[in-house]
Write a structure and sequence with these properties.
About 70% of the residues lie in helices and about 10% in strands. It is of the alpha+beta class. The protein folds into two domains: about 160 residues, no CATH class; about 140 residues, 2-Layer Sandwich (Alpha-Beta Plaits). It starts with a helix and ends in an 8-residue tail after the last strand.
Amino acid sequence: MLRFVYAIGGLIPLLYLLGDWLLAEPAAAAVLPLRLAYLGCWALLGLLTFKPGRRLPLRLSYPLYTLVGVGFACLIDGRLLERPEFILATSLFYLMGLLIAKAELALTLLCGAITVLTCALGLSALGLDAQTIGRVVFFHALWAGVAGIAAWVIQRLNRQLHAAESELRGSLLLNQRLLAETDELARTDALTALPNRRQFFRAAEAALADCRRDGRPLALLALDLDHFKRINDRGGHQLGDRVLREVAQRCRAGLRAHELAARIGGEEFALLLPGSTLAQAAALAEWLRHGIATLELPVAVTVSIGCAELTPEMPTVDALLARADEALYAAKEAGRNRVSAGRRLPAR
C-alpha cells in the first residue's frame, strides 16, 4: 500500500506544475525550480521505499519530502536561506514528522499546512508579489490537502487490509491445524496413540506388496489380553484404560523402525513385522508375553499371541491376519498366557 501513497504523492508536483501553467504568468517560471525540486524529492523517496528488503515508514515521508525538497530548492536558488522563517517552518515540520507515531488525518493536514507556509515564505524570498503568491499557495494548499486526505485514507485501508490479512492467515493456520488433527485422529487410536485398524490395514497392504516384490518374509502377530472383562469389572474402565496403554507401550518398545503395532479392536493388537520370519516373530512374541506378564499393575495381566508368516497362498492381508487369529485362538484354547505359531497353512 505504501507504493500507492508514493504514486499519488508523485502526482502532486505534476499537479503543481499544471496549476502554474494555468496561471499563465511569468511567476510560473520562477516557481518551476521549486516544483522540480519537490518532484525530485518524491523520486528519491520512491527509490528508497522500493529498494528490496527496505521500507520507509509513512511518518518519515512528510518530513523527508519537505527536507529534501527544500534542499533541492536551496541549491537552485540560495536566496531561500536568507529567510529565517523559511528555515524555522521546515525545521518544525521535520521535527514533527519524527515525533509522529501515526500519521492520522489531523496531523497530516497540519503538516500540509506547514508545507504551504514554507511554500509561501519561499515564494516571498524569491521576490514575488502578494497576488501571485496567493494564487500559487492556493494550488499548493489544495493539492496538499488532497494528498493528506488520500494518504490518510490509504493508511486506514492499509491497516484494515493488514488486519483482514492477519485474520485470514490465522484462520488458514487454524484450519490446517484442525485438518492435521482430524487426519491424525482418523489414523490413530486416541487411548493408546497407536495406529488404528484402518491405518494398520493400509500399512499392511503396502508392506505385503513390498515384501512380495522384494522376496522378503513378512510376519504378523495377533495379540489379545486374557480375561480383559474381569479387569474392567474389578478396577473399572480407568484401570482397563491404564492396562491398554501399558500394553501398547510394551508393544511399541519391542519394534524396529520399519515395524508397526496397532490397536485393531477393544483389547486386540496386531504387530506387523516386515522382513521377519515366523521363528523371529515367535521370539518377539515370547518377549512381549513375558514383559507384559511382569508389568507393575494393580492386577495381573497376561496375553495370548498368535503368529503367522506370509506364504504364496495368502493373497491378501485379511488372509494373513486370519491365519494369525487361528494361532491366537489355539493359544487361548491351550490355556492362555502363551504364544502359538501354528502351522503354515494357506488361507481358507
